Structure formats: structure tokens, C-alpha cells
Amino acid sequence: MSPLEEGLADRATDFDNARIERAVREILFAIGEDPDRDGLRDTPARVARAYAEQFAGLRQKPEDALNRIFEADHDEMVLVKDIEVYSTCEHHLVPFHGLAHVGYTPNKSGQITGLSKLARLVDVYARRPQVQERLTSQVADAIMEILEPRGVIVVIEAEHLCMTMRGVRKPGAKTVTSAVRGDFREYAQTRAEAMSLILGRPS
Ligand SMILES: Nc1nc2c(ncn2[C@@H]2O[C@H](COP(=O)(O)OP(=O)(O)OP(=O)(O)O)[C@@H](O)[C@H]2O)c(=O)[nH]1
Ligand SMILES: [Zn+2]
Hints:
Family: Belongs to the GTP cyclohydrolase I family.
Radius of gyration: 19 Å
CATH superfamily of the largest domain: GTP cyclohydrolase I, C-terminal domain/NADPH-dependent 7-cyano-7-deazaguanine reductase, N-terminal domain
Protein name: GTP cyclohydrolase 1
Oligomer: single chain
Pathway: Cofactor biosynthesis; 7,8-dihydroneopterin triphosphate biosynthesis; 7,8-dihydroneopterin triphosphate from GTP: step 1/1
Keywords: GTP-binding, Hydrolase, Metal-binding, Nucleotide-binding, One-carbon metabolism, Zinc
Strand content: 15-25%
Bound molecules: guanosine-5'-triphosphate, zinc ion
Largest sheet: 5 strands, mixed
Mean pLDDT: 93
Shape: elongated
Structural class: alpha+beta
């Protein structure tokens, strides 16, 4: 399986609402609640709808998002920073959220994509059970494969609710991950330039 396909659900496997509803009802029983009380009666169905949205990326491919490629007379860095990202930690199924910064240097023929498509691509991978490291590298690899740029940099900074509301309980702790490919990996100067734009200060 190619890295881009990792985590992609078999498209034949439809999202199973009824099964989620049964499972959530079970969990409610198991924690000692009454799933039939007023406030909880519709909860299994609500959770199923929420999961359909939260995990929609399991049925999407990166090329569904990066589907507009133009040619432009521009072959220098394009960076979209501060893309809000919400994902689900695959260890505890609780959210992690933060900011993604995605930059690339177009190839010599100046192939670029719509700016919003980079944010859409982040969502394709974020809307799956994830670890932050894999999310970061999948976004970078998809851009390399589809746009064939000279290089890509992806930086994600996020707070994991599994580390704040439970477990070690360290609110405010940020996890920063990066994936660099092509020019950004090869040339320290190019990488430093991107990092200073991302962090908003000289690195
Ligand atoms: N590398 C990585 N680890 C993650 C991510 N999200 C959560 N984790 C960690 O996954 C680990 C799971 O550890 P376990 O010991 O199996 O589970 P646990 O007993 O619930 O661990 P604690 O969170 O320490 O209470 C924890 O250290 C989490 O902080 C992520 O995106 N990347
Ligand atoms: Zn977790």
C-alpha cells in the first residue's frame, strides 16, 4: 500500500451508522448511564452523525482535494500558514487541534494549486484517526506526489486533549511536527526561510 493510501478505508465499506449507534448505546450502559433517559436518548444517533463528519477523510483521497492545478509564472515559495486543524488522536479517540502551515516551491513549469486546496488536503488526512506525525508526513507526501513541486514543508503545532483533559494533564503543552521534502530538506537556507515565515520571526 502506498503511504498516500495508508488509512484510506476500502471504499466499499460504507460508514455504518447503525453499528455506531449500537456501540455508543453499549458504552453508555458500560459507564453506568441510562441511554434511555431524556438527555441521552438521541445521543447514539448524534455521535454517529458527528463521527461521519469527523472521520469523513477515511473515504476521501488526496486527489479529491488537490484537484485544481494551474500553471503560473511563479516558481518561488507559496506558503499557507495558520490553517486551523482538528483531528482525532487514534490512541484515545479524543481531539487534537492546532495550526498547520503548508508551503511548497512549484516546479520549473510553475504548476500551482488553489490555496484553499492545501487546507482541504489537510482536512482529508485530519478527518481520520491519526497521530500527528503521520498526519504531517501524509500531507507532505501527497503534495509531492500530486503537484510534483521542487519541495514541500509542512509544520503542525497542536494541543492533544488526551494530554490535557486526562492522563498526564498538561494543558498548554504543544506538540510541533514537521515534514520537509525536496529543496526544503536539501537546503538549510530554504528551510530556514520557510521556518522564519511560519514562526513570524527570523529563525
Ligand atoms: N507520537 C504520538 N503520540 C501520541 C499522539 N497522540 C497521543 N499520543 C500518545 O500516545 C501515548 C499512548 O500511550 P499509552 O501508554 O499506550 O496510553 P495511556 O496509558 O493512555 O497513556 P497516557 O496518555 O500517558 O495516560 C501517550 O503517550 C499519548 O501522549 C500523537 O499524535 N503522536
Ligand atoms: Zn491520545
